[in-house]
User: Fold this.
Amino acid sequence: MQLTLWTYEGPPHVGAMRIATAMKGLHYVLHAPQGDTYADLLFTMIERRNARPPVTYTTFQARDLGGDTAELFKTAAADAYARFQPQAMIVGASCTAELIQDDPGGLAKALALPIPVIPLELPSYQKKENWGASETFYQIVRNLAEPRREAEVNTRSCNILGPTALGFRHRDDLAEITRLLAALGITVNVVAPLDATPDDIRRIPEAAFNVVLYPETAETAGRWLERTFKQPMTTVVPIGVSATRDFIAQVAQLAGLDPQVALAAGESRLPWYSRSVDSTYLTGKRVFIFGDATHALAAARIAKEELGFEVVGLGTYSREFARPVREAATKLGLEALITDDYLEVEAKVTELQPELVLGTQMERHIAKKLGFPCAVISAPVHVQDFPARYSPQMGFEGANVIFDSWVHPLMMGLEEHLLHMFRNDFEFNDKAAASHLGHGASKPATTVAAVAPAAGGWASEAERELQKIPFFVRGKARRNTERFAAERGITLITIETLYDAKAHYSR
Assistant:
């Protein structure tokens, strides 16, 4: 086993918790030792929910292992039903309790509770959180969905599947897409799992088709509904202007509608901004992308087609969706990075020296450590990625949010570069007073400490000169100079080497 400091996904029972916490009238009885209740904090502290997840833990201790842990589970399940009176219950074991092999499903069945009890088999040592969420939602749909009554199907109705608790901007995405569907004249039958009850799940077959917003969570259930009830599902995720327009066209086709009205009404400032004078200096910026497969693929398309960036790295921790990420990377002339080890990601970012990193909270830390601008595009996320403001990623408004989220780090990086450039000015040094109190500004010391020779074959004066180059081209200047020196057998890069390289690549 490998000791993990950070992890992109938790064990699969955390994915099951995301489904249970998103729904109403559903309770999760989890066979788990004392200490596994840490997962509650993900929802109450990070997502800032005002209620604990609907989960009852058996919380057995070491001394209980010599006794009847199965009886502990049966007691916990019976007490949970008596206390919470849920419409349905899911039962399972955490990674530690899985080793005991108490069979929560069979134990719960023996209780003969007067509600549906759905057993979950989540192999904790082979699968992870997103798979656990997908499997849990699939089992709930499969066990509760009732036979379709064709006469009651509204041809202009759909279900929205996929949004969960602890999802990256799921609530705001849902609001944006619901408005978009309403503009098309399409009625939303059920949204699940977010805010859905078991009774809502039973009504899913009544819609004409399914909108799958997050394939990591809902594609498995969507495929089953397609096979069982002949409900087609969308395959386009509406992140970015182009993808949103493709999504509208696909939904309109499924509902038998003309998409032109919604397409004409769709407005986003991203296309205009990306062509504006203020944004042209961003063209060709080298960007590294890593996250869940859905958001990483969308980010790569937006970066290349809508903002004119150069994608130099693309990867995902979602191994179940490795194939489409590899295919997208191949089209970009890249080899996809498929890993759940953040140290591999850090090594790749260090190697590529991108000018912008788009990733998870882990990539945020990596970028901060290495001094690169960064924007978060995917879970896992932290509390700052659950803003109080309306901040979707999907739809036309989501495209506006994405433009701001991606471009602002580059703009602020420019500001930081200017502050660094003038750091010896009497108004901008670290000890200076506020700028509007010019008479109180203190002048810096006239002597500047000598800079030690830089690693990697750079003379100290050449390294100082390199730092004067704006941050957004500094990485390229460093790479070009090092390539120039290597081709000529130069072992120590001096100021002369730096300017010779500049002249060479400017021809």
